């Protein structure tokens, strides 16, 4: 059986844009007094990091990165990005937030726009 290897590639611009979005998104949530939503997102990002780096990398050795880059920092960004965004969105759904459509549109739009911006300007 042939071994399948999943690979992802992110330009530094993609990482920078996504980090800026995460800060803006968190800032908007805090401005709207969605403190529990931000807390849940932050805890989920930390949990993702513990699983990705702690279990998959340190324990199982299943994560690697191209030479010259830090796996810790890339996994930290990915974990915070996915964990924070996904779980804040889930929390907003579960809490039946009055602005759910706007939050959902913002998140989904960013998932389409960020790769396009990075591809265009990288």
Q: Helix amount, in percent?
A: over 70%
Count up the helices: 4
Count the beta strands. 0
Which word captures the global form? globular
- Radius of gyration from CA coordinates: 16 Å
The average pLDDT is: 90
Return the string of H and E elements.
HHHH
End-to-end distance: 37 Å
Identify low-pLDDT runs.
none
Q: In percent, how much strand structure appears in the residues? A: under 5%
Q: What's the main sheet like? A: none
The assigned structural class equals mainly alpha
Your description of this structure?
This protein is mainly α. 75% of the residues lie in helices and 0% in strands.
Brief digest:
The protein is built from four helices and no strands.
SSE layout:
Elements: H1 12-31, H2 35-59, H3 71-94, H4 100-121
Helix pairs in contact: 1-3, 1-4, 2-3, 3-4
Give the tags.
122 residues; mainly alpha; 4 helices; 0% strand
